[in-house]
């Protein structure tokens, strides 16, 4: 079986396996090892500080495989310390997708210096300084700072985000109409769900962007604002 199934089919099967099963599969053959290891590293199940440090020690030997780290399901974020994560990313310089949702990791600004990110999702603690450091991630295309504590004081930092950013999610935050003046010019999608401070004026700012995706559920618009939105955003897909 190890030599007869095509890699494409094996990948689909492995996606359905538990971490323990994948670890066993990785010992079957070289092909299975490559496929299973890639999935294991993309979705690590090491949620204790000790296992994170162990993963960091193994990372230099498998650095090119580690492209995605998702800690959004971390049950006990106390173990996911800034020190442990920084040590891991130092040994995994090829990480492109980082998800820290549901975590309370501090010193994220320092941690991000280790990465060349394409997508990033951050936890509740977000600041202007952090947004500024994200501006140094020139390959960044997708950013999720929903349910974070960004405010008007951080508004100009939105303008420091990479100009080639494609999608920004600021749902359930305190962003205002004024903050939308500083959005990256090539933004193709934005999440504004439950942004109570967004109104008709903000819609005017959105109209200048080449948007193809918009989530505006829960924002308060007048009939005039809705008319402006429908006429200006004809290219929106959904």
Task: Describe the secondary-structure layout.
Layout: H1 7-15, H2 19-25, H3 30-42, H4 49-58, E1 68-70, H5 82-90, E2 97-99, H6 108-112, E3 119-121, H7 128-134, E4 142-144, E5 167-169, E6 189-191, H8 200-206, E7 213-215, H9 223-232
Parallel strand pairs: 1-2, 2-3, 3-4, 4-5, 5-6, 6-7
Key phrases:
32% helix, 238 residues, Monooxygenase, alpha/beta, seven-stranded parallel beta sheet
Question: Can you walk me through this structure?
Answer:
- With 238 residues, the chain is of the alpha/beta class.
- It has two domains: 1-42, Monooxygenase; 50-232, Ribonuclease Inhibitor (Leucine-rich repeat, LRR (right-handed beta-alpha superhelix)), CATH 3.80.10.10.
- The protein is 32% helix and 9% strand.
- The chain contains nine helices and seven strands; from the N terminus they run ααααβαβαβαβββαβα.
- Strand 6, helix 8 and strand 7 (213-215) form a beta-alpha-beta unit.
- The termini are far apart.
């Amino acid at each position: 079986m190890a030599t007869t199934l095509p890699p494409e089919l094996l990948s689909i099967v492995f996606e359905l396996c538990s971490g323990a099963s994948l670890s066993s599969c990785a010992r079957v053959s070289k092909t299975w090892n490559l496929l299973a290891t890639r999935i294991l590293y993309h979705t690590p199940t090491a949620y204790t500080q000790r296992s994170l440090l162990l993963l960091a020690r193994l990372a230099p030997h498998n650095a090119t495989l580690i492209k995605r780290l998702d800690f959004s399901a971390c049950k006990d974020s106390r173990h996911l310390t800034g020190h442990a994560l920084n040590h891991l990313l130092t040994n995994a310089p090829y990480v492109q997708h980082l998800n820290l949702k549901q975590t309370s990791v501090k010193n994220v600004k320092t941690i991000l210096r280790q990465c060349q990110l394409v997508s990033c999702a951050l936890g509740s603690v977000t600041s202007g300084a952090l947004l500024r450091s994200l501006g140094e991630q020139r390959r960044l295309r997708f950013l999720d700072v929903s349910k974070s504590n960004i405010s008007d004081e951080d508004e100009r930092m939105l303008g420091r985000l990479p100009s080639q950013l494609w999608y920004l999610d600021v749902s359930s935050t305190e962003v205002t109409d004024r903050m939308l003046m500083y959005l990256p010019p090539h933004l193709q999608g934005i999440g504004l769900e439950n942004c109570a401070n967004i109104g008709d004026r903000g819609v005017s700012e959105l109209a200048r962007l080449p948007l193809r995706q918009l989530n505006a559920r829960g924002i308060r618009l007048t009939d005039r604002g809705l008319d402006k939105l429908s006429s200006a955003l004809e290219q929106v897909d959904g």
